[in-house]
Amino acid sequence: MKIDLIVGTRPNFVKIASLVHSLHFTNSPIKYRIIHTGQHYDDQLSQSFFDQLEISKPDINLKVGSGSQAEQTAAIMVAYEKILKEKKPDFCLVVGDVTSSMACAVTAKKSLVKVIHVEAGIRSMDWEMPEEVNRVLIDSIADSLFTTTPEATQFLLENGKTKNQVFFVGNTMIDTLLKFQSKFRQPEIWNHLALKKSNYFILTLHRPSNVDELKSLKLLISEILKNAQGLPVIFPIHPRTAKILKEVKFSFSDLYIIEPLSYLEFNYMVANSKAIITDSGGITEEATVLGIPCFTLRNTTERPETITIGTNELIGTNPKNIKPAMEKLFDGNWKKGSIPAKWDGKTGDRIIKILEGL
Ligand code: UD1
């Protein structure tokens, strides 16, 4: 069996790493090619993940780079179709909900290659997110679907998929987190600021709805700083957000805007923080497993289990909501949370076993 493993952005590398490791450690007969679309191309967002997560270099890089949603989608489709014309695999496996995953899934399906979706069946019901459109498109054409929760499986079964197509296997992102937890390492900023455990916040923001409007972004950041009781707020900044904040000067001495961190350094910082404040989806899952309080600055989530079971709370995008959330945290009233079923580090092995039987 031959399979294309598609990656393009930071979260994809983390999820695919689990599958690549499982393929090796189980001595699987499945042959694979890693296809990198090039959606993320900066070293800190791409190459450093391959190095740290011990994934071999991509077999093919489509090098599409930046562009609008349509430009990226089109460029990936054209480039991947060429690859498929030269050599067709039996399956195209995509993870998550980014543009690269959707563009390759659609191209593969139209080239009569079966599509596998890992992290299927989750929905925010927020159609303003490009990721929601991508999820719906990928799930609708996928032949085999692997889910992170029983609820996602149930959703797919109620929406036209059959029992022999959908498998509840757990979370590949958590496989990688658990595998590399003992290798997390202090970034330079730790010593530079003499940071201490549970004595600083980590902030990440990159969703267009939060960062593309400068005025509301500034308000949100200001409100966080005003309520952080003087603890440092470390903000590893995504290129999208960096472009917007380029000209802005904040007057807060406790805000530290730094370059994106590598995987091992970022998770070291999360694991030792007082709390993480984020608009990412994947980070809410990692925070849940690390047992770190997580504020999600979004109005919806496609990962409700991080709230009902984990340490995450949906704070929303209204800056007014920051103060009560901070008070709850500082008063020691944040929930402890536990870990969702099958988020146990063995998801990659489960997926490979099922793939071998397809
Ligand atoms: C993408 C995903 C998002 C994911 C995020 C992780 C989609 C629709 N969105 O969002 O789901 O959470 O990745 O980071 O696929 N840029 C660089 N260097 C890079 C890559 C991008 O400077 O290596 C710049 C681009 O020029 C662009 C901006 O960052 O201006 C956004 O990049 P893009 O890949 O389009 O989307 P993300 O916001 O990263």
Folded structure, characterized:
The protein has 358 residues and is an alpha/beta fold. Helix content is 42%, strand content 15%. Helix 2 links the parallel strand 2 and strand 3. Helix 1 packs across helix 7, helix 1 packs across helix 16 and helix 4 runs parallel beside helix 5. It starts with a strand and ends with a helix. The model has no long low-confidence stretch (mean pLDDT 97).
Q: Give the averaged pLDDT, no decimals.
A: 97
Low-confidence stretches: none
Shape: globular
The order of strands across the largest sheet is: 3-2-1-4-5-6-7
**Radius of gyration over C-alpha positions, nearest whole angstrom:** 20 Å
Number of continuous helical runs = 16
The hetero compounds bound to this protein are: uridine-diphosphate-N-acetylglucosamine
Structural class: alpha/beta
From the N-terminal CA to the C-terminal CA, the straight-line distance is 9 Å
How can the largest sheet be summarized?
A: 7 strands, parallel
Total E-strand runs? 13
- Beta percentage is 5-15%
- Multimerization status: single chain
Query: How helical, in percent, are the residues?
Result: 40-55%
**Helix and strand succession?**
EHEHEHEHEHEHEHHEHHEHEHEHEHEHH
List the helices and strands and how they pair.
Elements: E1 2-7, H1 10-25, E2 31-36, H2 47-52, E3 60-61, H3 69-86, E4 91-95, H4 99-110, E5 114-118, H5 130-141, E6 144-147, H6 150-158, E7 166-168, H7 172-180, H8 188-192, E8 201-204, H9 208-211, H10 214-226, E9 233-236, H11 239-245, E10 255-258, H12 263-271, E11 275-278, H13 282-290, E12 294-296, H14 305-308, E13 312-314, H15 322-330, H16 347-356
Parallel strand pairs: 1-2, 1-4, 2-3, 4-5, 5-6, 6-7, 8-9, 8-11, 9-10, 11-12, 12-13
Helix pairs in contact: 1-7, 1-16, 3-4, 4-5
The structure holds uridine-diphosphate-N-acetylglucosamine.
Residues 9-11, 39-42, 45, 66, 98-99, 130-131, 206, 238-240, 280 line the site of uridine-diphosphate-N-acetylglucosamine.
